[in-house]
Specification:
alpha+beta, Cytidine Deaminase, domain 2, 5-stranded mixed β-sheet, 5 helices, about 20% strand, binds tetrahydrodeoxyuridine
Length: about 140
C-alpha cells in the first residue's frame, strides 16, 4: 500500500467536510482488497447525533459500490496532531476489515504519519464471529 497516495485522497476529502458546528474537519480514505480507493469527509447535522464521521462516510461509499474488504484507511483530522478514529468508527472498520491487521494510517499530511493496526486500537473486538458462535450453541 502506498501510504502517500491514500493520505492525499484523505487530505482532498477533508476539504469537503461539512462542519458548521464543530469546525473540526476530518478526511478519510479506504483502500479495498480489489485495489480501489474511496474517500469521505465528516458531515454534521443540526441534530448532532445524526453526524457522520469521515471514516464511516468512506467505508459506506466503498461498501455501497460493492467493495467487500478494506485493507487500510488513512485519516486526516487535526493537522498538528494525529487524529484517531472514534469508537463507533473503529467498530465499523472492524466489520469490513480484511482482517484485524488492517492498517490505520493517522496523518497530519503526506509526509507526517504513523501507522497503527486495528487489533491494537480495538482489542477484543466484538465481530460477526461472535454471533456465529452463538448460532452454533
Ligand atoms: N469525527 C470524525 O469525522 N472522525 C472521527 O473519528 C472523530 C470525530 C468528526 C465528527 C464531528 O463532525 C467532528 O469530528 C467533531 O467530533
Amino acid at each position: 500500500m502506498n501510504y502517500e497516495i491514500l493520505i492525499k485522497e484523505a487530505v482532498e476529502a477533508r476539504k469537503k467536510a461539512y462542519v458548521p458546528y464543530s469546525n473540526f474537519k476530518v478526511g478519510a480514505a479506504v483502500f479495498t482488497d480489489d485495489g480501489r480507493i474511496f474517500s469521505g469527509c465528516n458531515i454534521e447535522n443540526a441534530s448532532f447525533g445524526a453526524t457522520n464521521c469521515a471514516e464511516r462516510t468512506a467505508v459506506f461509499k466503498a461498501v455501497s459500490e460493492g467493495a467487500k474488504y478494506i485493507t487500510a484507511v488513512a485519516i486526516v483530522g487535526d493537522i498538528s496532531s494525529f487524529t484517531y478514529p472514534c469508537g463507533i468508527c473503529r467498530q465499523v472498520l472492524a466489520e469490513f476489515a480484511s482482517d484485524m491487521n488492517m492498517e490505520i494510517i493517522l496523518a497530519k499530511n503526506e509526509k507526517e504519519y504513523i501507522v497503527e493496526k486495528l487489533c491494537n486500537i480495538l482489542p477484543g473486538a466484538f465481530t460477526k464471529r461472535d454471533l456465529d458462535k452463538e448460532k452454533m450453541d
